[in-house]
Write a structure and sequence with these properties.
With about 240 residues, the chain is an alpha/beta fold. The protein has helices at about 40-50, 55-75, 95-105, 120-125, 125-140, 155-160, 170-175, 180-195, 205-215, 230-245; strands at about 5-15, 20-30, 35-40, 80-85, 115-120, 140-150, 165-170, 200, 220, 230. The protein is globular, with a radius of gyration of 18 Å. The mean pLDDT is about 95. It binds ligand C2E and calcium ion (2 copies).
Length: about 240
């Protein structure tokens, strides 16, 4: 972090019907002078072990706040940005006030940042996690449950807290084309929709998947079919090209 070796990429999220960008997800990248480009899958698990991930998360959040502030100052439209939050924050009593301080520092409206928490975080210590999320919701923060369907889907947690958005994991999207898998997807989306949750499908790679998800009335889509995660300037070009803004 001190050597500025981390950077933030943004992956567009598009509305399923209009295919217009409606938001994005911030994904960290480590560009090391010795080792070159290192994917988060290769360092986030290590940083989860040694605790450094919490600093990385705040670095990403600050970069996102800076970008949103710059766009607002330039009179450009802004859109909600999803940031990933490690489960480790739950142990930090200062976490909530640090989040609030960061948004205040850049004067960012609360609905412009959506906090993604992976479903597996609700398995280990679900009571503490549910407590934290409910507290944050009361303060006005927005949430998305990430990787839904990738592991032990915490169905009971859907009942005790309200997520604004659920992100269907790529492993579920990959069921498309398989008869039983498609049935499962149909019923999962119907369940989530009956709770009034917005559904984002993640890891969408083909037009067949897009068509199937349209029929399920999913709300938005993120995946290589539309765009890979991009450096901020390329992401802004993408938005300009697809919205004219
Ligand atoms: P994630 O949060 O589930 O992010 C989505 C991952 O899927 C990203 O991988 C993205 O590049 C990839 N992806 C998106 N669309 C497609 C697609 O169509 N096909 C395929 N095959 N992959 C797709 P990435 O950027 O390598 O990140 C991996 C994981 O690292 C993330 O998974 C997240 O768990 C973690 N991560 C990334 N940035 C951060 C961060 O700032 N903080 C924390 N705590 N974790 C992060
Ligand atoms: Ca995520
Ligand atoms: Ca995910």
């Amino acid at each position: 972090l001190e050597n500025n070796e981390f950077t933030v990429y943004l992956q567009p999220k598009v509305d399923i019907n209009s295919e217009i960008p409606v938001g994005c997800e911030a994904l960290v990248r480590w560009i090391s002078p010795e080792k070159g480009f290192i994917a988060p899958g290769d360092f986030i698990p290590l940083f989860e072990k040694n605790g450094f991930v919490t600093e990385v998360d705040f670095f990403v959040l600050e970069q996102v706040c800076r970008m949103l502030r710059r766009r607002m100052d330039e009179g450009l439209p802004v859109f909600p940005v999803n940031v990933n939050q490690s489960r480790l924050h739950v142990n930090d009593r200062m976490y909530l006030s640090m989040l609030q301080d960061m948004l205040n520092k850049y004067n960012i409206p609360m609905n412009m940042v959506v906090f993604e928490i992976t479903e597996s975080a609700f398995i280990e210590d679900s009571k503490t996690m549910v407590g934290l999320i409910n507290k944050m919701k009361a303060l006005g923060f927005s949430f998305s449950m990430d990787d839904f369907g990738s592991g032990y889907s915490s169905l009971s947690s859907l009942n005790v807290m309200h997520f604004d958005t659920i992100k269907l994991d790529k492993s579920l999207i990959d069921y498309i084309g398989d008869r039983n898998g498609e049935k499962l997807l149909l019923h999962i989306t119907q369940l989530l929709q009956s709770f009034g949750m917005t559904i984002t499908a993640e890891g969408v790679e083909t037009s067949d998947q897009v068509e199937f998800l349209k029929n399920l009335h999913c709300d938005d889509i993120q995946g290589y079919y539309f765009s890979k995660p991009l450096p901020v300037n390329e992401f802004e070009d993408f938005v300009r090209k697809h919205t004219g803004l």
